[in-house]
Recover the amino acids of this structure.
């Protein structure tokens, strides 16, 4: 069966191109650095850069236009933005740190302000070990124990070698909690990646992507028969 | 079989096992968890012309993981709009990838032909990328109109009737954050930050890896959260359709069975070779 290129809709052409890019990227797994892989990577990076550039340009234009209607606050932002370009000259590089300092300072202040309520006060308030639900009580106790012992692990004012006794034992429990936490986090991350890879595969087995898959399989088989792989 | 081909063949078999449910759903019985029911009930309970704000912080590389939740929840909200319970949905993003991701989700949703039936400006509004991330979120919480003066297409929000009376985030009835990754700025700025003036229901569709971060805010600060794939497949079941999340759940399940099978077979071969005096490689 031939692929009826002329009859494909825009959406199907998109799927076809999408499948081609996916398999070209995955070709690295079989053949290492190869022309198909390089083309796919360059297209992806180029498109990502152009989309980002266009979005930024649109934003600058739309956010700067209020200057024309008398909103001079936007003018300050525009000037600070332009100042970041002063880093291209060694004579003016120092000045380019000012807008970065403003952004970092404002960002930190806003983050800290928002953190105090939901991330600190609310967290200490919710712990109770004597509710009606025994399982929930156990959970709350474990959370408390994990928080305390993990903090103990990170006490740097006392040398770890001199911990000993109760403090040493508790910090080792904290270490175990961290190991469990990181393990669970990695497991979750892995499942997420697996899902994305599987999801990408869905376009390779559906029309018209399977034409690209079929061609790729033929190419791999031919290559294997000729002595194959890397 | 040559030893150097064993890995390749196992990978190939693994891919085939994973791909099978994507071609045709297997029909595995999916049990609906209390977390999903809770989430569903919050959305389903919207009434009296509620206005929902949906923040899309879904990354391009995580669309298959996270995007299915966006599709399912937006479908549900749109159904509620048609039923007259929800007045409209406002979609925005503080991620520069958001405007690229939304068309993907719309494309999937277009199959159900629900999106096109909404009237722009009165039933839904697309704000596009709102730059500044956490600074913008903090600002939206206090002064929504000043932070987002126009929509994605440059239309002043004063001309969009859906946003009449919305001056701060607290004026929305429900805020849903679709979050891929480990950002916790939303919890900081839109849960208990006094500036938000919050009286809305706050929910998370979070990436699998963000669940651990979201849990510490649950239930007192986040009303409900939903993780992608498995939980989204449950949501799809509640909505009465089988989407990509259902296929991906089945693919994961099939791969897990494949992995367990491999362990059993490899262990069996190992012991067979060892007990028969051969090389137990």
């Amino acid at each position: 069966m031939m692929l009826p290129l002329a009859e494909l809709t825009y959406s199907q052409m998109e799927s076809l191109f999408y499948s081609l890019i996916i398999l070209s990227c995955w070709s690295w797994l079989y053949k290492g650095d190869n022309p198909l892989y390089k083309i796919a990577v360059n297209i992806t990076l180029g498109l990502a850069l152009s989309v980002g550039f266009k979005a930024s340009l649109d934003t600058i234009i739309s956010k700067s236009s209020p200057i024309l209607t008398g909103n001079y606050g936007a003018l300050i932002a525009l000037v600070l933005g332009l100042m970041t370009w002063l880093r291209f000259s060694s004579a003016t590089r120092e000045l380019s740190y000012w807008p970065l300092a403003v952004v970092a300072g404002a960002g930190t202040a806003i983050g800290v302000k928002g953190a105090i309520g939901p991330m600190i006060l609310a967290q200490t308030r919710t712990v109770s070990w004597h509710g009606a639900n025994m399982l929930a009580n156990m959970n709350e106790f474990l959370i408390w124990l994990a928080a305390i012992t993990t903090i103990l692990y990170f006490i740097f004012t006392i040398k770890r070698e001199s911990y000993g006794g109760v403090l040493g034992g508790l910090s080792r429990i904290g270490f175990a909690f961290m190991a469990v936490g990181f393990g669970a986090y990695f497991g979750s991350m892995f499942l997420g990646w697996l899902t994305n890879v599987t999801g990408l595969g869905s376009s390779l087995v559906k029309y018209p992507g399977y034409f690209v898959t079929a061609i790729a399989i033929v190419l791999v088989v031919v290559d294997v028969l000729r002595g194959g792989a890397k | 079989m040559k030893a150097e081909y064993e890995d390749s063949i196992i990978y190939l078999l693994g891919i085939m096992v994973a791909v099978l449910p994507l071609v045709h759903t297997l029909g595995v019985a999916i049990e609906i968890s209390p977390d999903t029911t809770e989430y569903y009930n919050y959305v389903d309970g919207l009434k009296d012309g509620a206005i929902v704000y949906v923040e899309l912080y879904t990354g391009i590389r995580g669309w298959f993981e996270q995007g299915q939740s966006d599709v399912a929840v937006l479908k549900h909200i749109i159904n509620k709009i048609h039923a007259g319970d929800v007045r409209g949905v406002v979609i925005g993003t503080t991620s520069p990838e958001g405007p690229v991701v939304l068309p993907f989700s719309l494309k999937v949703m277009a199959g159900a032909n629900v999106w096109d039936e909404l009237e722009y400006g009165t039933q839904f509004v697309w704000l596009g990328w709102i730059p500044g991330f956490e600074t913008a979120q903090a600002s939206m919480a206090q002064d929504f109109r000043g932070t987002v003066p126009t929509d994605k297409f440059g239309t002043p929000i004063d001309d969009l009737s859906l946003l009449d009376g919305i001056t701060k985030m607290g004026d929305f009835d429900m805020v849903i954050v679709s979050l891929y990754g480990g950002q916790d700025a939303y919890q900081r700025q839109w849960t208990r930050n006094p500036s938000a003036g919050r009286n809305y229901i706050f929910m998370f569709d979070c990436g699998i890896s963000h669940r651990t971060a979201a849990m510490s805010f649950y239930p007192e600060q986040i009303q409900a959260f939903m993780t992608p794939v498995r939980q989204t497949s449950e949501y799809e079941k509640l909505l009465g359709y089988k989407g990509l999340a259902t296929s991906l759940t089945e693919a994961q399940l099939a791969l897990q069975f494949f992995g367990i099978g491999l362990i059993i077979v490899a262990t069996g071969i190992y012991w067979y070779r060892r007990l028969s005096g051969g090389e137990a490689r």
